[in-house]
Amino acid sequence: MLSARDVKNAVSSWGRYEGSMSFEEFKSKLIKRAKISKASLETLAPLVPKDIDYDGNMDLLGVAFNAAVVNKFNKNGDGMNTSTALKYTDNFIHKPTNIEHDKQKVVGHIVSAGYSEFGSNRLLNEEEARITNKPFNIALGAVLYKTVNPNFTDLVEKSLNPEDNAFQKVSASWEVGFNDFVLAVGSDVLSEAKIVSDPDKIMELQGYLRSYGGSGKTEDGENIYRLIQGDIYPLGIAYTLNPAAEVKGLYGEVPEKTKVFINDKRDKISQNNNLNVNNQKNIIDMELEQTLNELKDLLNEKKFSKEAVASMTDTFADAIRQRDEQYRKDIEAERLAKEGKTKEYEDLKSSVAELEEKLGAANERISHFENEKRANEAVASFNQRMEEVDQKFELDDQDREFLASELKSLEDQEAYEAFASKLEVLWKHKNKEVQAEFDAQIQARIDEEVAKRVSTASAEEVDVEDALDSAETTDAPVANSNEAVASEEPSLRDKFKAAFSRDNIEIS
After folding, report:
1. Rounded to two decimals, what is the model's pTM?
2. Percent of the chain having pLDDT more than 90?
């Protein structure tokens, strides 16, 4: 059962097909390519370098991959037969690996070599490879220098992870030198192609080769390829997003993310901003080269001249590079702007914290002042109310103690007025106005009674002067109750005012 991802990978690795085909042919080829894409690369595990302590050498990553297909021509129109492959495959060992065929971007070296079955990736021994004329793979094992280009390493690690969207995005493509070749016409499978070895015929037809700027087809519409032979010089491999051969992906254990420290001017290579920019540019260059290669293929198919192809690709390349440069400038500007916003935010947070602290202190002072104000107002209110009641009623010490206790508990004017109304009833007999009126009534009655007695007295005359002369004088003092009360009152008022002073008030 093929998944949508399998089909997508198959289509992406299709290359270009010229001519027509039936739906059944298309379906068959699609399934075949999807199977190639889906085939597990785990069978290549024995080629991954084993004699390396990867835990102790965290800067190294072991991988294995198919680098070329023998007995089958690639998209560049080049191929190799069985005998040549068997003779020179081991010479790939110890050769460098680079990024997108850029020999200045070496990121590792090859350690092991072997062969695998085309389609299944099952490892083949040399004898199995020797007796077949069917397509099979040159399979290699290599180590990757993780610290040389951390961003590329990150891409490779994602390419190893089946759960990542970049799974099998990175593949390998061989690099070889040679000094001779013959032509193969017709089929991209060597066993089905017609070999042209006559030097004159080769000279006549070689201009149609893709490597010579041709379309890869003869005037008769037949596909034409270059079968390399003679002295072969394996130069290494390139990690690429667009392999020429029908190979796909790398195999390796997905390592745990580990920060690597290096004794140079950079503290942490994996986090150096300048390095990251450069590494990102390397990835962009890979994508650019892939795009330009595809553009060249398309222009060649449309039969444009070499000069036109070169001019147009240069134009596109310049435009892309300019846009990339502007993009990186925009990214840098965005980064700087973000840093500025971050600083502004931190400054604002600091200012807010300072304001909150000042506000808290101000609120505390205001609360203290409000409590003092309420306490002073309570004392003043108590004294005023005490004075009002004291002036209205004739009170003794016991009355004042009761009054002071009750007035302390009154919270507002409404409560005080209700309490004062009750006092009018309870202390009506102590009301000074009532008492004055009562005293006036008593005095009037006395005066009336005296008048009556004077009018009805006996006519017997009394010698007043004799009576006075005979009267005994006495020094008995006459009590003056008003004077006594007057002398006590100030001390009593002071006493009860002191019972409700500011020092005795606590406001919550």
Report:
1. 0.49
2. 29
